[in-house]
């Protein structure tokens, strides 16, 4: 038993030596435990505390809060996307095939580092999406996909920020920040009220955009299995598996939500046509 403990301690120390020392001392970077604790607290609030709190209360009107919140999210994600574009993926210095992490304090490397870290912190802010659903009693929108998507990502992203902040692994942050700009712009418009919501019939295309993101990010990661690249293969596989998992989850959501609605619309139209035919026959009797 002692030998096993020593082996685990040795492995942990060796792994810790590979960390990105540039983020030493930054909030939430000393250990994955704080992020895990926040995620567990999130699940407890969503499944137990929140519903109990709202049980005998009317839904809150959070229109102004949501407008500010969504605008804030748009600004943050625009900044992240700009930084990762200007100093990373669209700078002409990054390779889409193989991009090692630059652990230096060069300006471009530090700008990418900060953008990735802010992207990571934004995932904790995203948790408020669910809290607002609870306060507005929109419990039908708190699906299993929603809870897993929000409650898992802060923990799964931690190794990437702690060990390989930048380089090949930052491609997901590059894509995801763009997706979130569009997503929160949609939510911003939706928060304006019914007069705008009637023009927002393109939500399913937003879901498609998210799935395209997962496909692109997974291909980008798994290509390292077939080429020689100075980027950790295990980390690349971890990110790739993460993308495939969410692709399958979103695909299942898309199939059950939009295709089901399409079938219901078709059934309703058929029923209306049948009723009209019956009425026409009665008129001619």
Automatic annotation (TrEMBL):
Q: Is RNA-binding included in the keywords of this UniProt record?
A: no
- Principal subcellular localisation of the protein: membrane
Region Disordered: start and end of each range? 265-285
Which major enzyme category is it? Answer: transferase
Q: How does it sit in the membrane?
A: Multi-pass membrane protein
EC nos: 2.3.1.199
Pfam families, per the entry: ELO (PF01151)
Sorted keywords for this record are: Fatty acid biosynthesis, Fatty acid metabolism, Lipid biosynthesis, Lipid metabolism, Membrane, Transferase, Transmembrane, Transmembrane helix
TM region(s), chain numbering: 33-50, 62-82, 117-135, 142-161, 173-193, 205-227, 233-254
Q: Where in the cell is it found?
A: Membrane
Compositional bias of kind Low complexity? 269-278
Q: Which reaction does it catalyse?
A: a very-long-chain acyl-CoA + malonyl-CoA + H(+) = a very-long-chain 3-oxoacyl-CoA + CO2 + CoA
Write down any Gene Ontology CC term.
endoplasmic reticulum membrane
Q: Transmembrane helix as a keyword?
A: yes
Checking InterPro entries in the record gives:
ELO_fam
Query: Which Gene Ontology MF annotations are present?
Result: fatty acid elongase activity
Domain of life of the native organism: Eukaryota
The family note in this entry says:
Belongs to the ELO family.
Its protein name is Elongation of very long chain fatty acids protein
Species of provenance: Daphnia magna
Upper classification of the source organism reads:
Eukaryota, Metazoa, Ecdysozoa, Arthropoda, Crustacea
């Amino acid at each position: 038993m002692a030998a096993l403990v020593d082996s685990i301690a040795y492995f942990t120390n060796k792994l810790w030596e590979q960390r990105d020392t540039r983020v030493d001392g930054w909030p939430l970077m000393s250990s994955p435990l704080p992020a895990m604790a926040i995620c567990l607290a999130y699940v407890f609030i969503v499944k137990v505390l929140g519903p109990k709190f709202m049980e005998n209360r009317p839904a809150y009107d959070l229109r102004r809060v949501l407008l500010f919140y969504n605008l804030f999210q748009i600004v943050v994600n625009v900044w992240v996307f700009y930084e990762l574009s200007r100093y990373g993926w669209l700078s002409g210095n990054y390779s889409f095939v193989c991009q090692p992490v630059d652990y230096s304090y060069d300006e471009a490397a530090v700008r990418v580092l900060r953008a990735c870290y802010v992207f990571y912190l934004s995932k904790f802010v995203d948790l408020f999406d669910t809290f607002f659903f609870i306060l507005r009693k929109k419990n039908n929108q708190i699906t299993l996909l929603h809870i897993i998507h929000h409650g898992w990502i802060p923990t799964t992203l931690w190794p990437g920020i702690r060990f390989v902040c930048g380089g090949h692994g930052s491609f997901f942050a590059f894509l995801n920040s763009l997706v979130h700009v569009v997503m929160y712009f949609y939510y911003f418009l939706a928060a304006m009220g019914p007069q705008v919501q009637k023009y927002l019939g393109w939500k399913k295309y937003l879901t498609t955009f998210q799935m395209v993101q997962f496909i692109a990010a997974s291909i980008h990661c798994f290509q390292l299995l077939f080429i020689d690249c100075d980027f950790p293969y295990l980390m690349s596989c971890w990110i790739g598996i993460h993308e495939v998992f969410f692709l399958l989850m979103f695909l299942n959501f898309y199939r059950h939500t939009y295709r089901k609605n399409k079938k219901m619309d078709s059934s309703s139209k058929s029923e209306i046509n049948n009723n009209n035919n019956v009425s026409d026959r009665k008129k001619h009797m």
